[in-house]
Amino acid sequence: QYELTSDTYRAKFRGARRRPDETFRQYHTRIQTFFDRWLEMEEVGNDFRKLCDLLMREQMVENASPELKTFLREWRPKSKDEMVTLADNYLDAHRVRNTVRSETVPHATGI
Q: Taking the model in full, what pTM does it have?
């Protein structure tokens, strides 16, 4: 059997909807379990600053391009500051590569 990751629990927490046959107490218990496991796997504990950091990282990943999102999930930065540095470095490297590529590709002359 495989172990679920923090990303899996985050997705389960964010995507959970109350089932028609489920009371709100049951729904609450289910999503609380997902939330607790997510925070446990991210080693947040009861530290409010760590929770804020986790939520900031989540927000940045969710609003990144698909390529950057994959890059950040592969590197799994442990802080928002580390994530910002990685993301900026990634964007700088890809911006340079895209600029060089566009300059070296011959343009159609319409002939």
A: 0.75
